[in-house]
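Inputs:
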Amino acid sequence: GAVVSQHPSWVICKSGTSVKIECRSLDFQATTMFWYRQFPKQSLMLMATSNEGSKATYEQGVEKDKFLINHASLTLSTLTVTSAHPEDSSFYICSAPRGQGYGYTFGSGTRLTVV
Amino acid sequence: AQSVTQLGSHVSVSEGALVLLRCNYSSSVPPYLFWYVQYPNQGLQLLLKYTSAATLVKGINGFEAEFKKSETSFHLTKPSAHMSDAAEYFCAVSEGTSYDKVIFGPGTSLSVIP
């Protein structure tokens, strides 16, 4: 079945540094990728939608300069958390739609801890 | 805009008892509806989805859900709970197109008592 490979699965970084999270579609073309954030004991909140070859669309309240999204190819979308702070510590998950009636494929998630 | 509510942030059932997790949605267009399960520190696993075909949808691990348009509901059920069913369950909705964003409900934590 369709797989989205998300890396890294966990990362610890120092406050003020940047972290890049990658999501690759392994056996299908992901023209769209959704990026979610999940805080402990909470639901998934949509952060942004990326489309291959165009600028990402951010949800209200999400800082586009802090969460940089790049979708340069049909198989790779990246989320970079710039100048990370402890409040950015969260579980980040990507998701790609697979076409009519096939639903969505989710990455396995990235646990980011900023110290 | 679409939204999802899940009645009961936490549900406890005895092993072998019926599992019922409630989900209501709002959408201005015919929706696609999903149930996902999440185990601690893991990603999401799709249990089942409704995409405008049969209103009673059967999923994995013995779960099923019924789409009721008149009630705007998509409740998840399982006849007999197993200990392994203990997890977080999320109902989600998208606006009926393949590439629309998926909006998640707040989630229901299911505990199974031996």
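The interface with chain A takes residues 32, 34, 36, 41-44, 46, 49, 51, 90, 98-107 of chain B (CB under 8 Å). Flag for discussion at group meeting.
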